[in-house]
Design brief:
Chain lengths: 277, 357, 282
């Protein structure tokens, strides 16, 4: 094996498509984000760390990343089940259900936040019920998680669903004709094939949750140290015209997200090479 | 295939040209008023009134573009290049920042118009549930056991800063008996003790706050629609408006014996009007806010007019006569108040530090 | 027809769980969707129509609402195609070839999702604002990017940037390159291979990508809010108009506009259903 940048392939268009990808990525994503990094560097090394290591900022990081992980994990489990339901099970009116899955993207985040707060607040439809069994949702960390589940919900479903639809049925047929049990077919054939889209869905739902602002503030309560998310602290800094401080928090969040997502993606490409084949 | 492309291109261009900012008919003046949230209703009416006045005076039509949002956010937009001819914001601090950060207007802008450039004022009052079940009459009642207070986050809401400062001023007045002592260097020790008490009061007050919304109208919704809390701290004009809009049978307004005089100021953005050639009309626009008909309008929209004699007596009768102190006499102006209370490490941050009780 | 309820869609041998398992899956799936999607939707619709159909109609045909609608459609009409071209190029390069640094590029593509919407707006302020890198130059030439339509378009493109690419990359990776290689070896040109072999294979994924991208482009609030300037009838998109109405305590109109937005974003899904139906029955 030689140290080549790219393995040879007979397919054409690599240079063009990769070149365009990198150019567009650079212009739309990297250039603007570099402005963010440059702005935060105005604080200097000491100032940067003083800003992001403030106890309130740290508490908000813990809350934001923690709630996002929980929300993404919930979405993985239930999203995969929903995708399976939509593709593999006959049910009347399924198309309507299919349509509303995208609702969390279609609604402006503020509307989602208001609707969820109405629903889960102590005098809301579900809130009354949950309150009666001792669960308080709105204006708690649980409320934040609920909002994050909502906004990330379509990701897992919409990545797993097409993969299920396009999945080669013959593999399953072969497995069962070779005498594999249902559990074996599920764990040895189907789940490995679904792993890449599931991981992608998880990553996207997680990433989206980390940055979310609009829907969360209506249901969060926004109490310092308890229910204050990182995006709110960015706004707080901006309200004081402290652009450098705001960008410092943003950069810190970005670096953590970047590291986490990179880790997931590396794992995925590694497992793609070593597990599935 | 090519025909389709050309057609798509044409449609896109057509859509773009349909955006109204490119259209500006001759004989029409155009100005942009960048304002904060609670003034929507006021300026909707005032713009009609001014357009009539301007046409009568000059024979020219005027198109007033209107932008609303949180006061700080709007100020930031102007700082970053939103081309406002006039700003009409919640607090002088925000306009000070426009002057300091972007040099778009003179630092002494507040002297350009009468009454600190505030054609109307307001104060902070309590909105309580109908019949006032928790018997809330004064600031001290807010920290009674079992009382829940709704106020937005002063870090993100201009209105919440007025709430916070009003509570602070109440304690100083109670402890000192006379607010003039604050600027008396002989009484420095007495003032220091009073300020310590004020900080304790504020810390206790925020312990009674279950939700800190990011803006004033968010807090109103939490209180009115979600049914959370026993009392909402609000601008007087907002309190009246929400009683009107959300149900007179559900809420009562309680005016505390002492509160703060909130002065929402207005200013011309010099560099913008000079470049656009709109100085004459913007000056008229702001000056006319002090005219009898505009003062009457302000009172109708629950703002306290600076010339109450021009307003409808029935409107004026709605405002109770409590004692009002100004931000200058208690805090030495917005710059100082902002720095001591709301900047990073200020009083608001201190009372939420872990370990502070 | 009714006999088929809760049975597996595909009768061929394979993983066809027993009825009881299908039932459990259905209950869990519907319960989850009910708590998190259907109930919020019902809330929005209930509020939107709480004052009757005529008021709903009046709310969405009001002057400012219409101009917000036009702006929202314009923004989506630019952002979606732009990201579509990118998505196709990126997924081709990243899914069909093996090269070093691939994971890094995919991560960078994901990045806009992880950026708080507030920050997505802020970065354009830092670039094009009065004190931004390009601000002074733009000011001299009287070009307005932020607080005008171009800024809103840019922020939307940024926010919806990953959707189509991220939908296609895992799908194309899973499919591998065998079919394309076969087509090429049979003498098809690269472009023909892409159109006749690759595109049909990814059409559903592509469709989902477009649907999501479009929905998000029309629904984006935070980022657009930072660069909009909130000028009534000019730079307010539908989501911003919802906020305006909500802040005016005009809850009925606010939810009416929100329901319109939800409907608009789902139009693409109806189109998908039609295409699906036609391919099955045509």
């Amino acid at each position: 094996m030689s140290f080549r940048f790219k393995e040879s392939s007979v397919l054409p268009g690599f240079g063009l498509s990769l070149g365009y990808t990198l150019l567009y990525l650079g212009l739309i994503v990297l250039l603007p984000l570099s402005a963010l990094v440059v702005k935060s560097s105005e604080l200097g090394f000491g100032g940067f760390f003083k800003t992001i290591l403030d106890p309130r900022v740290l508490a908000s990081f813990k809350l934001t990343f923690g709630a996002s992980l929980v929300a993404a994990a919930v979405n993985v489990v239930f999203g995969t089940i929903v995708a399976w339901f939509l593709v593999r099970i006959n049910f009347p009116g399924k198309r309507v259900i299919d349509a509303i899955v995208d609702l969390p993207f279609a609604l402006p985040t503020a509307v989602s936040g208001i609707a969820l707060a109405m629903l889960y607040s102590p005098n809301g439809k579900l809130g009354i019920f949950l309150q009666s069994i001792g669960i308080k949702v709105a204006f708690t960390q649980l409320g934040i998680t609920v909002a994050l589940i909502f906004i990330g919900l379509p990701f897992v479903i919409r990545t797993v669903q097409p993969a299920l639809e396009e999945m080669d049925r013959e593999l399953e047929e072969a497995a069962s004709s070779l005498g594999a049990s249902r559990t074996q077919t599920l764990t040895k054939v189907i789940l490995p094939l679904l792993m890449p889209p599931i991981i992608t869905g998880f990553t996207l739902a997680f990433a989206r949750a980390v940055g979310e602002y609009g829907s969360v503030i209506f249901i969060a309560g926004n109490m310092p140290m308890k229910t204050e998310i990182a995006s709110l602290l960015i706004i707080t800094k901006l309200e004081q015209y402290d652009y450098a401080g705001a960008t410092a928090i943003a950069v810190a969040m970005l670096l953590v997200s970047l590291a986490l997502i990179l880790l997931i993606n590396l794992f995925q490409s590694w497992s793609g090479k070593h597990l599935i084949r | 295939m090519n025909k389709i492309k050309i057609y798509i291109l044409k449609t896109v261009l057509l859509l773009f040209s349909g955006i109204p900012f490119l259209a500006n008919a001759a004989g029409t003046d155009e100005i942009l008023n960048v304002s904060y949230d609670p003034t929507r209703e006021l300026y909707r009416d005032y713009n009609v009134l001014f357009a009539k006045y301007w046409e009568k005076e000059t024979g020219r039509k005027v198109n007033i573009r209107q932008s609303h949002g949180g006061s700080g956010k709007q100020a930031r937009a102007v700082i970053d290049g939103l081309k406002a001819d006039v700003v009409t914001l919640a607090l002088a601090y925000d306009i000070d920042e426009i002057s300091a950060k972007s040099k778009l207007l003179q630092p002494n802008w507040q002297q350009n118009l009468p009454q600190n450039s505030s054609p109307y004022t307001s104060t902070i009052v309590f909105l309580v549930r109908k019949g006032n079940p928790k018997a809330i009459k004064d600031w001290n009642d807010l920290i009674k056991p079992g009382v829940e207070v709704i106020t937005p986050n002063p870090k993100t809401s201009g209105g919440a800063r007025w709430n916070h400062l009003a509570a602070w001023g109440y304690v100083l007045n109670r402890e000192l008996g006379d607010l003039k002592k604050i600027n008396d260097s002989d009484k420095a020790e007495e003032v220091r003790v009073a300020e310590k008490k004020a900080k304790e009061f504020i810390a206790e007050l925020y312990k009674h706050v279950p939700v800190l919304d990011s803006g004033a109208r968010g807090a109103t919704t939490t209180f009115a629609q979600r049914g959370i809390g026993d009392v909402l701290l609000a601008w007087e004009n907002e309190a009246f408006l929400s009683v009107n809009q959300l149900g007179a049978d559900k809420f009562d307004i309680v005016v505390p014996p002492i509160s703060i005089l909130a002065e929402p100021p207005v200013a011309i953005i010099d560099t913008v009007v000079d470049k656009r050639g709109t100085r004459k009309i913007t000056e008229a626009y702001l000056k006319h806010l002090y005219s009898p008909e505009a003062q009457k309008l302000a009172a109708r929209h629950f703002y306290r007019p600076v010339h109450p004699e021009n307003a409808d007596p029935a409107d004026i009768a709605r405002f109770s006569k409590s004692k009002l102190f100004t931000i200058d006499e208690v805090f030495g102006g917005w710059q100082k108040a902002q720095k001591a209370h709301f900047s990073d490490g200020g009083i608001f941050d201190q009372i939420y530090q872990p370990g502070y009780n | 027809m009714f006999i088929n309820i809760l049975r597996s869609t595909d009768k061929r041998p394979g993983l066809n769980p027993p009825l009881i398992v299908n039932m459990a899956i259905t209950v869990i799936a519907l319960g989850f969707l009910f708590m998190f999607v259907i109930m919020p939707l019902i809330i929005v619709l209930k509020e939107a129509f709480s004052a009757g159909l005529s008021l709903w109609w009046a709310s969405i045909t009001e002057k400012d609402a219409l101009s917000a609608l036009r702006l929202t459609l314009l923004v989506a009409a630019i952002a979606v195609p732009v990201n579509l071209v990118f998505g196709l190029a990126a997924s081709w390069a990243l899914a069909k070839f093996r090269f070093k640094g691939k994971s890094l590029i995919i991560t960078l593509i994901d990045l806009p999702f992880a950026v708080s919407p507030v920050v997505s707006g802020l970065i354009y302020v830092l670039l094009f604002g009065l004190h931004g890198w390009l601000g002074p130059w733009l000011g001299e030439h009287d070009i307005q990017i932020i607080f005008a339509v171009p800024g809103i378009v840019l922020a939307t493109v940024f926010v919806t940037f990953p959707f189509i690419a991220r939908e296609l990359i895992p799908l194309m990776s899973e499919q591998g390159t065998d079919e394309e290689q076969a087509a090429l070896s049979l003498g098809a040109s690269g472009w023909q291979t892409f159109r006749r072999v690759t595109l049909p294979n990814i059409k559903w994924g592509l469709m989902y990508g477009i649907i999501l991208c479009n929905a998000r482009a029309m629904g984006e609030f935070g980022a657009v809010s930072v660069v909009s300037g909130h000028i009534r009838g000019e730079t307010n998109t539908l989501p911003l108009q919802v906020e305006v109405l909500y802040n005016e305590y005009n809850f009925v109109a606010a939810f009416a506009v929100a329901s319109l937005l939800a409907g608009l974003a789902l139009v693409t899904l109806v189109l998908k259903s039609i295409v699906e139906w036609k391919t099955k029955h045509g």
